[in-house]
Design brief:
The chain is globular and about 65 Å long. The longest helix is centred in the last third of the chain and has 18 residues. It is α+β, with helices and mostly antiparallel strands and about 280 residues long. α5 crosses α6 and α8 packs across α9.
């Protein structure tokens, strides 16, 4: 089907869960989220929902934030995320997006991960996804189209999975703290400060956060900062802008933290996710 350059009207929309094919791929390019009204944003899956089919979301431009029960995932440009069928999730996109969504029937997804994860994409995998978006919804069984779909599934199955993931607490008071930090990540308040804001004792905050995420408050907040940094870098913010937004006194301090956490500099991290040579177009 054609790549969408606008969100379709309800009468134009075909639910991929109802298409009797093992793989259905849809693409979207040049949709500026700043130009959408509330109804348009709702249709970009900003509320929790689930699909019968699994989803591989390949992002070429913009940034996706995907939250599943108990976890938050960031998908930078030229990366992908796998969401198994039936998993409750919500996806929030930022910037002008270019993306492809591969809906995979559970019967065809037996070799794919059982849990949500990021997926490292090769040029071949990216091009197979893009090529599959050109297929008719009801492509012929047993022909070239079916061979392409089989190869695509094989490539997804062997692709390395990533860990750009943050365990999210379910306790309402801890979620309040998470929301406040996201709203003002430059606030360098101590754990005691954040505990008081949420109506908790410092000891309770430390204990509950460790129980629900397996991390100390300091480590968890730093991991959240990393997620925000990747999101901002992916939408074109400079290293200095990201450092300022996270409350660092210097860009060097932010770069050191980023390198220690992810093993590379912010600039190299984003550069490595730029497109490589492709094989078809």
């Amino acid at each position: 089907m054609p790549v969408l350059t606008r969100l379709p009207h309800d009468a134009e929309w075909t639910d991929p869960d109802l298409v009797p094919r093992p793989v259905v791929t849809m693409g979207a390019a040049g949709i500026d989220l700043a130009d959408l009204d509330a109804d348009g944003l709702d249709r970009l899956e900003k509320d929790f929902h689930r699909h019968r089919k699994g989803q591989l979301l390949l992002l070429l431009r913009g940034v996706f934030t995907c939250e599943v029960e108990g976890g938050l995932w960031i998908v930078p440009p030229h990366s992908a995320i796998w969401v198994p069928g039936g998993v409750l999730h919500k996806i929030i996109a930022a910037g002008t997006i270019e993306c492809y969504v591969v809906f995979i029937d559970p019967a065809a997804a037996s070799g794919l991960p059982a849990k949500c994860c990021t997926v490292s994409t090769t040029p071949l995998l990216r091009e197979l996804v893009i090529r599959s978006a050109d297929l008719p919804l009801l492509y012929a069984d047993g022909g070239m189209e079916s061979h392409l779909v089989t190869l695509l599934l094989d490539e997804i199955a062997v692709a390395p999975t990533g860990n750009l993931h943050l365990a999210m607490p379910t306790d309402a008071r801890l979620r309040k703290i998470a929301e406040m930090i996201v709203e003002d990540p430059a606030d360098r308040g101590t754990m005691r400060t954040w505990a008081r804001r949420a109506g908790l004792s410092e000891r309770t905050l430390a204990r509950r956060l460790t129980e629900e995420t397996g991390m100390s408050f300091g480590r968890w907040r730093q991991r959240l900062h990393i997620m925000l940094a990747v999101k901002w870098l992916g939408t074109g913010s400079s290293v200095q802008q990201v450092a300022d937004g996270l409350g660092y006194e210097s860009a060097g301090g932010f770069v050191s933290m980023f390198r220690k956490a992810l093993g590379t500099s912010p600039g190299r991290y984003i550069a490595e996710r730029q497109p490589g040579p492709v094989s078809f177009r």
